[in-house]
Amino acid sequence: MPRNIAVLVGSLRKRSYCRMLAHALEPLAAEKLHLSIVEIGGLPLYNQDIDGDGAPATWTMFRDKIRQVEGVLFITPEFNRSVPAVLKNAIDVGSRPYGLSVWDKKPAAVISVSPGALGGFGANHHLRQSLVFLNMPTVQQPEAYVGGAAELFDESGRLTKDVTTKFLRSMLDEFSRWIERHAPGR
Ligand code: FNR
Protein backbone atom coordinates (compact mmCIF):
# COMPACT_ATOMS: atom_id res chain seq x y z
CA MET A 1 0.00 0.00 0.00
CA PRO A 2 1.45 3.40 -0.95
CA ARG A 3 1.96 5.92 1.83
CA ASN A 4 -0.40 8.90 1.77
CA ILE A 5 1.47 12.13 1.17
CA ALA A 6 0.11 15.68 1.28
CA VAL A 7 1.61 17.92 -1.38
CA LEU A 8 1.62 21.62 -0.48
CA VAL A 9 2.09 23.87 -3.50
CA GLY A 10 3.33 27.36 -2.69
CA SER A 11 1.80 29.07 -5.73
CA LEU A 12 -1.78 30.04 -6.45
CA ARG A 13 -1.62 30.77 -10.17
CA LYS A 14 -3.29 28.41 -12.63
CA ARG A 15 -0.28 27.76 -14.85
CA SER A 16 2.10 27.44 -11.90
CA TYR A 17 5.25 25.45 -12.62
CA CYS A 18 5.12 24.15 -9.05
CA ARG A 19 1.63 22.81 -9.59
CA MET A 20 2.63 21.30 -12.94
CA LEU A 21 5.52 19.61 -11.21
CA ALA A 22 3.25 18.32 -8.45
CA HIS A 23 1.07 16.62 -11.06
CA ALA A 24 4.04 15.35 -13.06
CA LEU A 25 5.39 13.66 -9.92
CA GLU A 26 2.20 11.72 -9.20
CA PRO A 27 2.94 8.78 -11.54
CA LEU A 28 6.67 8.70 -10.76
CA ALA A 29 6.24 7.28 -7.29
CA ALA A 30 2.77 5.80 -7.51
CA GLU A 31 3.73 2.36 -6.17
CA LYS A 32 5.21 3.75 -2.97
CA LEU A 33 3.70 7.20 -2.49
CA HIS A 34 0.19 8.43 -3.11
CA LEU A 35 0.71 12.15 -3.72
CA SER A 36 -2.27 14.41 -3.35
CA ILE A 37 -2.37 18.20 -3.31
CA VAL A 38 -3.90 19.78 -0.21
CA GLU A 39 -5.11 23.23 -1.20
CA ILE A 40 -3.89 26.13 0.94
CA GLY A 41 -5.13 29.17 -1.00
CA GLY A 42 -8.41 29.44 0.92
CA LEU A 43 -6.91 29.46 4.42
CA PRO A 44 -7.57 32.78 6.19
CA LEU A 45 -4.43 34.52 7.42
CA TYR A 46 -3.45 33.16 10.79
CA ASN A 47 -4.76 35.20 13.68
CA GLN A 48 -4.52 33.81 17.20
CA ASP A 49 -7.56 35.83 18.28
CA ILE A 50 -9.86 33.58 16.26
CA ASP A 51 -8.11 30.26 17.00
CA GLY A 52 -9.26 27.59 19.45
CA ASP A 53 -13.02 27.02 19.90
CA GLY A 54 -14.74 28.51 16.86
CA ALA A 55 -11.60 28.53 14.69
CA PRO A 56 -12.37 28.83 10.94
CA ALA A 57 -13.59 25.52 9.52
CA THR A 58 -10.99 25.76 6.74
CA TRP A 59 -8.21 25.73 9.36
CA THR A 60 -9.72 22.74 11.15
CA MET A 61 -10.18 20.78 7.92
CA PHE A 62 -6.63 21.58 6.84
CA ARG A 63 -5.21 20.48 10.20
CA ASP A 64 -7.23 17.24 10.06
CA LYS A 65 -5.96 16.46 6.56
CA ILE A 66 -2.34 16.95 7.55
CA ARG A 67 -2.79 14.86 10.72
CA GLN A 68 -3.96 11.95 8.59
CA VAL A 69 -1.10 11.83 6.07
CA GLU A 70 2.16 9.97 6.48
CA GLY A 71 4.39 12.64 5.01
CA VAL A 72 4.41 16.11 3.47
CA LEU A 73 6.01 17.17 0.20
CA PHE A 74 6.52 20.93 -0.11
CA ILE A 75 6.84 22.27 -3.66
CA THR A 76 7.56 25.94 -3.51
CA PRO A 77 8.49 28.83 -5.74
CA GLU A 78 10.78 31.56 -4.47
CA PHE A 79 9.31 34.99 -3.77
CA ASN A 80 11.94 37.60 -2.94
CA ARG A 81 14.38 34.91 -1.85
CA SER A 82 11.90 33.33 0.56
CA VAL A 83 8.71 31.26 0.55
CA PRO A 84 5.45 32.81 -0.68
CA ALA A 85 3.16 34.10 2.07
CA VAL A 86 0.47 31.56 1.20
CA LEU A 87 2.78 28.69 2.10
CA LYS A 88 4.09 30.34 5.25
CA ASN A 89 0.50 30.97 6.32
CA ALA A 90 -0.38 27.29 5.86
CA ILE A 91 2.63 26.33 7.94
CA ASP A 92 1.62 28.78 10.67
CA VAL A 93 -2.00 27.56 10.68
CA GLY A 94 -0.85 23.93 11.02
CA SER A 95 1.53 24.78 13.85
CA ARG A 96 -1.15 26.09 16.23
CA PRO A 97 -2.83 26.02 18.77
CA TYR A 98 0.38 25.84 20.80
CA GLY A 99 1.28 22.25 21.60
CA LEU A 100 -1.04 20.79 18.97
CA SER A 101 1.10 21.28 15.84
CA VAL A 102 0.15 18.90 13.04
CA TRP A 103 3.71 19.00 11.71
CA ASP A 104 5.46 17.44 14.70
CA LYS A 105 7.56 14.38 13.63
CA LYS A 106 5.89 14.27 10.18
CA PRO A 107 8.46 13.25 7.53
CA ALA A 108 8.93 15.90 4.84
CA ALA A 109 10.69 16.69 1.59
CA VAL A 110 11.27 20.01 -0.15
CA ILE A 111 11.42 20.85 -3.85
CA SER A 112 11.95 24.47 -4.88
CA VAL A 113 11.14 25.56 -8.41
CA SER A 114 12.07 28.65 -10.41
CA PRO A 115 12.35 29.78 -14.00
CA GLY A 116 15.69 31.23 -12.89
CA ALA A 117 19.04 29.47 -12.66
CA LEU A 118 19.24 29.19 -8.87
CA GLY A 119 16.20 26.93 -8.58
CA GLY A 120 14.70 28.74 -5.62
CA PHE A 121 17.65 28.03 -3.33
CA GLY A 122 16.70 30.86 -0.95
CA ALA A 123 13.11 29.70 -0.56
CA ASN A 124 14.22 26.11 -0.11
CA HIS A 125 16.46 27.02 2.80
CA HIS A 126 14.09 29.47 4.45
CA LEU A 127 11.51 26.70 4.39
CA ARG A 128 13.98 24.20 5.84
CA GLN A 129 14.59 26.59 8.73
CA SER A 130 10.90 26.44 9.67
CA LEU A 131 10.85 22.66 9.30
CA VAL A 132 13.71 22.33 11.79
CA PHE A 133 11.73 24.30 14.35
CA LEU A 134 8.58 22.29 13.58
CA ASN A 135 10.45 19.03 14.24
CA MET A 136 9.82 17.58 10.78
CA PRO A 137 12.49 15.07 9.74
CA THR A 138 13.28 16.36 6.24
CA VAL A 139 15.09 14.59 3.42
CA GLN A 140 18.61 16.03 3.29
CA GLN A 141 19.90 14.47 0.07
CA PRO A 142 19.25 14.73 -2.72
CA GLU A 143 18.46 18.44 -2.45
CA ALA A 144 16.00 19.54 -5.14
CA TYR A 145 16.47 22.98 -6.67
CA VAL A 146 14.56 22.85 -9.95
CA GLY A 147 15.77 25.73 -12.14
CA GLY A 148 14.87 26.67 -15.71
CA ALA A 149 11.26 25.68 -15.00
CA ALA A 150 9.88 27.37 -18.12
CA GLU A 151 11.74 24.84 -20.28
CA LEU A 152 10.82 21.71 -18.35
CA PHE A 153 7.23 21.08 -19.43
CA ASP A 154 5.34 20.54 -22.68
CA GLU A 155 1.97 22.18 -23.38
CA SER A 156 0.08 19.57 -21.38
CA GLY A 157 2.39 19.89 -18.37
CA ARG A 158 4.42 16.73 -18.95
CA LEU A 159 8.13 16.75 -18.10
CA THR A 160 10.19 16.91 -21.29
CA LYS A 161 13.70 16.13 -20.04
CA ASP A 162 14.69 12.57 -19.13
CA VAL A 163 17.46 13.80 -16.87
CA THR A 164 14.97 15.81 -14.80
CA THR A 165 12.49 12.95 -14.61
CA LYS A 166 15.24 10.57 -13.53
CA PHE A 167 16.44 12.96 -10.84
CA LEU A 168 12.95 13.55 -9.48
CA ARG A 169 12.22 9.82 -9.42
CA SER A 170 15.39 9.22 -7.41
CA MET A 171 14.37 11.99 -5.04
CA LEU A 172 10.95 10.44 -4.49
CA ASP A 173 12.57 7.03 -3.96
CA GLU A 174 14.67 8.54 -1.20
CA PHE A 175 11.60 10.24 0.29
CA SER A 176 9.87 6.86 0.34
CA ARG A 177 12.83 5.24 2.15
CA TRP A 178 12.92 8.22 4.50
CA ILE A 179 9.26 7.74 5.41
CA GLU A 180 9.79 4.04 6.15
CA ARG A 181 12.57 5.08 8.51
CA HIS A 182 10.68 7.90 10.24
CA ALA A 183 6.95 7.16 10.03
CA PRO A 184 5.27 5.14 12.73
CA GLY A 185 4.25 1.61 11.67
CA ARG A 186 0.88 0.99 10.14
C1 FNR B 1 9.11 36.08 -8.08
N1 FNR B 1 10.01 35.27 -8.77
C2 FNR B 1 11.24 34.98 -8.20
N2 FNR B 1 12.03 33.98 -8.73
C3 FNR B 1 13.21 33.64 -8.13
O1 FNR B 1 13.90 32.74 -8.59
N3 FNR B 1 13.61 34.28 -7.00
C4 FNR B 1 12.89 35.27 -6.41
O2 FNR B 1 13.29 35.80 -5.39
C5 FNR B 1 11.66 35.64 -7.03
N4 FNR B 1 10.85 36.60 -6.47
C6 FNR B 1 9.56 36.75 -6.92
C7 FNR B 1 8.66 37.56 -6.19
C8 FNR B 1 7.33 37.63 -6.60
C9 FNR B 1 6.38 38.45 -5.77
C10 FNR B 1 6.89 36.94 -7.75
C11 FNR B 1 5.42 37.01 -8.17
C12 FNR B 1 7.76 36.19 -8.47
C13 FNR B 1 9.60 34.65 -10.04
C14 FNR B 1 8.98 33.28 -9.78
O3 FNR B 1 10.01 32.33 -9.67
C15 FNR B 1 8.07 32.91 -10.95
O4 FNR B 1 7.01 33.83 -11.03
C16 FNR B 1 7.54 31.49 -10.82
O5 FNR B 1 6.94 31.13 -12.05
C17 FNR B 1 6.55 31.35 -9.69
O6 FNR B 1 6.23 29.99 -9.48
P1 FNR B 1 4.97 29.29 -10.14
O7 FNR B 1 3.78 30.20 -9.95
O8 FNR B 1 5.28 29.15 -11.63
O9 FNR B 1 4.84 27.98 -9.46
UniProtKB/TrEMBL annotation:
<dbReference type="InterPro" id="IPR005025">
    <property type="entry name" value="FMN_Rdtase-like_dom"/>
</dbReference>
<protein>
    <submittedName>
        <fullName>Chromate reductase</fullName>
    </submittedName>
</protein>
<dbReference type="GO" id="GO:0016491">
    <property type="term" value="F:oxidoreductase activity"/>
</dbReference>
<dbReference type="Pfam" id="PF03358">
    <property type="entry name" value="FMN_red"/>
</dbReference>
<feature type="domain" description="NADPH-dependent FMN reductase-like">
    <location>
        <begin position="4"/>
        <end position="149"/>
    </location>
</feature>
<dbReference type="GO" id="GO:0010181">
    <property type="term" value="F:FMN binding"/>
</dbReference>
<dbReference type="InterPro" id="IPR029039">
    <property type="entry name" value="Flavoprotein-like_sf"/>
</dbReference>
<dbReference type="GO" id="GO:0005829">
    <property type="term" value="C:cytosol"/>
</dbReference>
<dbReference type="InterPro" id="IPR050712">
    <property type="entry name" value="NAD(P)H-dep_reductase"/>
</dbReference>
